[in-house]
Design goal:
heterodimer, A: 399 residues, alpha+beta, six-stranded mixed barrel, 13 helices, 12 strands, B: 236 residues, alpha/beta, Rossmann fold, six-stranded mixed beta sheet, five-stranded antiparallel beta sheet, 6 helices, 28% strand, cell membrane (chain A), ABC transporter permease (chain A), transmembrane (chain A), MacB_PCD (chain A)
Chain lengths: 399, 236
């Protein structure tokens, strides 16, 4: 038996190809949206991987340091380092801000890393060019996505930092490139005010009789010094010994230090389940809308093609063609349309992904799921046309 | 199965019920022998189309009996179950317009019927080519319907009606769109094929040019038929 669907498609190939391309662009957008979501999850995982930590010690009852602000004293790490099972502990600060680069500025996550070296928690694990930070001030390691190159000067608040090293795929969960600077500089950057603001705060403090006591001359200086310095960090990153489990190390820190401790799985849950949950729901809604639009397009085209063939279908039924043969012809045409659309969509998504400002991760599972969804949508979309075709009276061929 | 042609006895068809009931056919009798070509003539609204649809197993009659060769098709409310297979295997249709499938070439338009009946593609195409050759359109075998002239399309449609060697062919105004020369050629082809394949042919027509060619004519008016002898001339 010849393929009626195949012959019809060959006969009206232009209509199929051009509609398939239109549908393909829609499917391409759908696959890209799924890729954006995957990219956000992957960015979150990369952030955790690159931190090199097994535990995140943060302010009590907060979801810090990524999903909520968290503030812990910067001398806390010493006590944590002495806890059983802790191999390394390091202070870290995170601040998402605009960083000046030449005449322009870029959105970046500025990471303050404590003195140490490569291999310390929080430090960039690999560089693609240059070297790690070796000085205590005004050096930076930047991600390539920031647009910075070796030797460039970055402007963070009032200070300037020379780029001495470059990383690749060191990004925040929002996809912003990371810029690593020394911890002290980062702590200062978090609370640094302009000169006028500092002067006004000093005058207010001087005018406060509780701080400016003639009998205690050093009190005012001590208060002002505490106001203009920052002795807090966002979290302490902890690396544990191999013979300990995360819970074995985390529980004593929670109990004795009165802090919240997250292990890797919990932190991934916070990033994926809370930080990007709203974005995921938005993308999910877009996917549903795009699926409905795709289904409507396929249904409309298949319905139109079927209506164009009503007389031929009547003749086919009159000469004894079974209903299932006619239904199969319509379904096959819908599937071919879906196949053309999917191939075009996949090619579009593959070539468009690198052009997106956010990281787009196209995974084989999404491709397979998308293909299955497209086929299912095409089969469902052909139902209306099949109902019309099966209702055609063979007597219509006679008149 | 011996060839006995088509026979209907006291066939009636009613549309609607109660006060709105309308009898389109009233006790129609008709018999067409194998190899015979008869005309069915009547004005608009006389019941021609209804009779053709009953003969073509497209609609069920209200009462009466119809046999095709030695097979009972309808008998007072009973009918064969698979009318689709009956139409495919035992009834050939030729329409006023050829109604060829636009996405199949001439050969496959003809070969489609045997293919639907389960005949292998090669064998179905061989049969189709045989008929196209007999109808003198073999040189257009690979042409699509849109590339064929009106006369060629009609010959391909006739080949499609004949390809399963049905015991009966129903031709609905087959010459209406053709000039007199081509109309006579179509009638000649139907006569020749009826003789060759021992097929009963019923031609519904208004065409004055071809009416004299029938040896037997059924007139139908208000759902009632009466038979008369035709002139049977002009076919050489």
């Amino acid at each position: 038996m010849i393929s009626l669907a195949g012959r019809d498609i060959l006969h009206t190939w232009g209509k199929f190809v051009f509609t398939g391309i239109g549908l393909g662009l829609l499917i391409g957008v759908t696959l890209t949206m799924a890729g954006v979501y995957r990219g956000m999850v992957e960015d979150g995982r990369v952030l955790l991987d690159n931190s090199g930590a097994d535990l995140w010690v943060v302010q009590r009852d907060t979801l810090g340091p990524y999903a909520e602000s968290s503030s812990v004293p910067d001398d806390l790490w010493r006590g944590i380092r002495a806890m059983p099972g802790v191999v390394q502990a390091a202070n870290i600060t995170y601040l998402t801000m605009q960083v000046g680069l030449g005449e322009q500025d870029v959105r970046a996550m500025v990471v303050g890393i404590s003195a140490g070296g490569s291999g310390e928690p929080g430090w960039p694990p690999q560089l693609v060019a240059g070297r790690q930070i070796t000085r205590g001030h005004y050096e930076a390691v930047a991600d390539l996505a920031s647009g910075a190159r070796l030797g460039d000067v970055l402007r963070i608040r009032r200070n300037h930092y020379r780029v001495v090293g470059l990383t690749r795929r060191m990004v925040s969960s929002s996809g912003d490139p990371m810029v690593f600077i020394p911890l002290k500089d980062a702590q200062e950057a978090q609370f640094l005010k302009d000169n006028d603001a500092i002067l006004m705060q000093r005058r207010r403090t001087e005018a406060n009789p509780a701080f400016n006591r003639p009998a205690v001359p050093d009190l005012l200086d001590a208060v002002i010094a505490s106001q203009t310095s920052n002795s807090y960090v966002n979290a302490v990153l902890v690396r544990i010994a191999p013979e300990f489990t995360a819970q074995q190390v985390a529980e004593p820190i929670r109990r004795w230090k009165r802090l919240t401790v997250y292990d890797r799985a919990q932190m991934e849950g916070i990033l994926v389940g809370k930080l990007i949950a709203t974005s995921a729901r938005q993308i999910g809604m877009f996917l549903v809308i795009l699926a409905l639009v795709s289904a409507a397009i396929v249904a409309f085209l298949i319905y139109t093609l079927t209506m164009d063939k009503i007389r031929e279908i009547a003749v086919l039924k009159l000469i004894g063609t079974k209903n299932r043969t006619i239904a199969a012809m319509i379904v096959q045409q819908a599937l071919v349309l879906g196949l053309i659309g999917f191939v075009v969509g996949k090619i579009t998504a593959t070539f468009a992904a690198p052009l997106f400002p956010k990281y787009v991760l196209l995974v084989p599972f999404d491709t397979a799921a998308g293909f299955a969804a497209v086929l299912a949508i095409c089969v469902l979309a052909s139902v209306v046309a099949i109902r019309v075709a099966l209702r055609v009276d063979p007597a219509e061929a006679i008149g | 199965m011996s060839r006995q042609g088509i026979r209907i006895e006291r066939l009636s068809k009613r549309y609607g019920s109660g006060d709105t009931a309308f009898w389109a056919l009233k006790d129609v009798n008709m018999q067409v022998a194998p190899g015979e070509v008869v005309g069915l003539i009547g004005p608009s609204g006389s019941g021609k189309s209804t009779l053709l649809k009953c003969l073509g197993a497209v609609i069920d009659p209200t009462s009466g009996r119809m046999t095709l060769d030695d097979q009972v098709i309808y008998d007072e409310g009973w009918r064969v179950r698979d009318l689709g297979a009956l139409r495919r295997d035992q009834i050939g249709f030729v329409f006023q317009a050829p109604y060829l499938i636009p996405f199949l070439d001439a050969t496959d338009n003809v070969a489609l019927l045997p293919m639907l009946a389960g005949v292998p593609n090669d064998e179905a195409r061989r049969r189709a080519l045989e008929l196209l050759t007999a109808l003198d359109v073999q040189h257009r075998a690979r042409a699509m319907p849109s590339q064929l002239s009106g006369g060629e399309q009609q010959r391909v449609a006739i080949a499609r009606g004949l390809v399963n060697r049905p015991p009966v062919i129903l031709a609905d105004e087959p010459t209406a769109p053709l000039d007199s020369q081509r109309a006579m050629a179509v009638i000649r082809i139907l006569n020749d094929m009826a003789q060759q394949l021992q097929t009963a042919v019923i031609v519904v027509t208004h065409d004055e040019k071809i009416i004299p060619t029938f040896k037997r004519i059924y007139h139908i008016r208000d759902g009632v038929t009466h038979e008369e002898a035709g002139e049977g001339r002009g076919l050489g």
